[in-house]
Design goal:
The complex is a heterotetramer, with 2 copies of chain A (257 residues) and 2 copies of chain B (222 residues). Chain A is an alpha/beta fold and 257 residues long. Chain A contains 8 helices and 11 strands. Chain A has one domain (9-255): Glutaconate Coenzyme A-transferase (3-Layer(aba) Sandwich). Chain A is globular and about 55 Å long. Chain B starts with 6 loop residues before the first helix and ends with a strand. Classes of the chains: A alpha/beta (257), B alpha/beta (222). Chains in contact: A-B, A-C, A-D, B-C, C-D.
Chain lengths: 257, 222, 257, 222
């Protein structure tokens, strides 16, 4: 059986060349492939195109909370495709602005459009006509077409070179299940990318995942690395981080009812 | 000056628009507050992939917070029986296929239903699009909640939006701290006013000419 | 709580008007919503557009095997959109031909294209550029466009009025799981249709389906009817049918190794 | 006349193209027969939504047949650990995203790789498209298995297909009862011939001019 399990995050990202495009998940700090991102930061790969739902606010890091942080990758980026440049309250918009002034290209999109474009990439489509963004700044530079009396914008598929995804359990074929809202963008990212690398809580034997419950079939997962218990993004460290977040008043107000 | 409704009351009034069997996605701002007043049988959706989940975790129950159960704004919620978890492709199909009601915040709403709610004018980096445009275009009903005027007293309900648009002609109902307004092909219809306010007083703080509903009444939370 | 459970198949289809479009599953005899189809045959609704992967061979019925049969609906159809008009070995092509001569319109498509068009319908897209069918008879009447050096055909979304789907378990919100390959087209059909009606083996309490295992969230399911144990398509009847199929030599050779 | 390989042997030779870690979808006809000869570590996919499933149910074990576990051709298979079940959207993404190898049957293959395999000329009703066009366009490698000639001895490997096409320029490898041929930008390269046959004899039954591989060898099943 072909071995998809890598022993280290550094090995798993070792072949990613300068100029590659990478899609990864970030909703605040949930569902991030923090260990793969850190490995790519260590490797120093340049001129990357990053496709992501979000860029993590840096404030948690500044407060010393052991939290995932996609913003560390900013100095290595040529371009970002995202619906969320930064969360204003946490000052991330300003943070990104510095990089934009130094030449970082930002392509804005809506999150649903990002989902459809990733689907289009995965399903080998040449493009889609999308109703979202008509009459907004997202129209700029896009073909507009009226179909059955309604306006649409032409959007290109997204087919990233690599996806970094965060799973819960993987078996040796790469069949994956997620946990809660960590699922989010991961399944479509895995299908759209040419090479998908997953960091997971647990690796199980074949049969350890009920075939009816598989969310991402193994054919879409090329490499698997287990997240050690004491690594960033592990359940243990994440629980500790939530505790600390609860001590910081303004974040506490933001995140708790 | 006469008193306007507070944000919590606006949220309560907006939540009254929902009925058993509805699915709703709540935006940032006043809509967030609606979460506490959702009628029974209404399922709440979050675009990061959950529908029909339980109440939010309160500040004094932080030990219940689980990173795997958060909404699109990063707030923690409690899992309950009957909820469903799914990916964003499924989530945005829910949102775009006309099955969802959405309550959104707003910076400006125009007479024709145009909505501006994501960007105060700082260019591409001036705001967060997220799933807001998808909700505005795709939901079967868009309810916008906002303060009737800016802090300096300028109307937020305008003839034409000056802030970058979220979507064109998308708003169905506007609920403010002064009024409930329906957007119709004939124009904006004033349906309800805050207690103690007259239609003329609301009109004064509203840019487009309002059509006064025949059965105009006071905003009522029962 | 809004009640989605209907007590009979006839009630569940009672409002379907003449001229409606209906999408339903048929892979041979697996995954069919036979009881809903039978109810629609009883109702006699006319001028229907049927979207389906397949039309069932009639031969099983001729042999007296208690098996699902979508072909019963043929006299009520104005149009079919399908990748499989009939299975030649079982004589279904000839069967459909009679109806075509009497005016039935057939729109051929590939199965993957059908999947993408249903996705496009569900995700509210205006159209897609599809690489499949270029250089074939499927080109006829379609816009062709070169995108980044490759040819694509423009395909319209499919947004049927009704989906008839076959689930395994449903809870009272309509959250659904399937069983084995009965899943196939059902999830995307449920999402693309304006009104989705499900026939299921079992209806369970809220909590009877693990939220992580839900395949079709309840928002996509409008009506639910339980398949009685002695009805067509029930596990019991289907087992009996397989036994009978095994007695007919030429089908046996077709279906068994 | 010299003996050609039988269908079972063609299937065995085709299955030899697969290696550990490959995922393969098998079409109707000779490809069906490959199922018995799939090397270890190769996962078989069926477009109705299963990958990595177990062996087919044999005629003498009908009690194992379960309607919930069938392939696209309606044949019953046995579930095994490690398999995955999914819907057609996921299935056709697998097929179209260049991750799958497919072994298809063929009516005709043209010099440039054009494939005709769905329709013998009866117009729209003349055949079954199913997922065949998706496989031909989307698979990372298309292996076509067919008899080298029609029953009346006419070449099926032709300069241009006369039957309705499945897809243009899609075929990578042709495996027949006489030869293994690679489709390259320079033309069709004859790589292997059936035992006892010469390149010239194969050429005689083939319409396009074949390029003879320097390392031409006999078809070998080991």
């Amino acid at each position: 059986m072909k071995n998809k399990v890598f022993n280290s995050f550094d090995e798993a990202v070792a072949d990613i060349p300068d100029g590659a495009s990478i899609v990864t998940e970030c909703w605040g700090t949930t569902g991030m492939s923090q260990n793969l991102i850190d490995a790519l930061v260590r490797k120093g790969t340049k001129n990357l195109t990053l496709i992501t739902h979000n860029l993590l606010p840096t404030v948690l890091k500044l407060e010393g909370i052991p939290s995932a942080n996609l913003a560390d990758l900013l100095p290595q980026l040529k371009k970002i495709i995202t619906p969320v440049v930064g969360i204003q309250q946490l000052g991330a918009g300003a943070f990104v602005k510095d990089y934009v002034e130094k030449g970082l290209e930002v392509e804005l999109t809506s999150h649903g459009t990002l989902a459809s474009r990733l689907y289009a990439g995965a399903a080998d489509l040449g493009g889609i006509y999308n109703p979202v963004g008509v009459g907004t700044i997202l129209e700029e530079g896009k073909e507009k077409r009226v179909i059955d009396g309604r306006e649409y914008l032409f959007e290109k598929p997204i087919k990233p070179d690599y996806a970094f995804i965060r799973g819960h359990k993987a078996d040796f074929y790469g069949n994956l299940v997620y946990w809660g809202v960590y699922r989010a963008d991961q399944p479509v990212m895995a299908m759209a990318a040419k090479c998908t690398i997953a960091e997971v809580d647990e690796i199980v034997e074949l049969g350890g995942i009920d075939p009816e419950h598989v969310v991402t079939p193994g054919i879409f997962v090329d490499r698997i690395v287990k997240v050690p218990e004491d690594a960033m993004g592990s359940v243990k460290i994440t629980k500790a981080a939530i505790g600390k977040i609860g001590e910081i008043d303004f974040i506490r107000k933001l995140l708790f009812k | 000056m006469k008193e306007k409704l507070d944000r919590e009351v606006v949220a309560m009034r907006a939540a009254k628009e929902l009925k058993d069997g509805d699915c709703v996605n709540l935006g940032i701002g006043i809509p967030n507050l609606c979460a506490n007043y959702i009628p029974e049988g209404v399922l709440v959706e979050t675009e990061n992939g959950a529908l029909g989940y339980g109440p939010l975790v309160m500040q004094d129950e932080i030990e219940l917070a689980d990173q795997h159960y958060t909404d699109a704004g990063g707030r923690y919620w409690k899992p309950i029986p009957g909820m469903a978890l799914f990916d964003i492709v499924t989530s945005f199909i829910m949102i775009r296929s006309g099955r969802m009601i959405t309550i959104l915040g707003g910076l400006q709403v125009a007479e024709n239903g145009d909505l501006a709610n994501w960007n105060t004018g700082g260019g591409a980096l001036g705001g967060t699009i997220g799933g807001g445009m998808d909700l505005a275009v795709g939901a079967k009903r868009v309810i916008v909640t906002l303060e009737h005027t800016t802090k300096s007293g300028k109307p937020k309900i305008v003839k034409e939006c000056t802030y970058p648009l979220t979507a064109k002609r998308c708003t169905n109902t506007v609920i403010t701290d002064l009024a409930v307004i329906e957007v119709t092909p004939e124009g904006m219809v004033l349906k309800e006013v805050a207690p103690g306010w007259t239609a003329a007083e609301v009109q004064e703080l509203t840019e487009p000419k309002l059509i006064i509903a025949k059965d105009l009444k006071e905003i009522d939370l029962v």
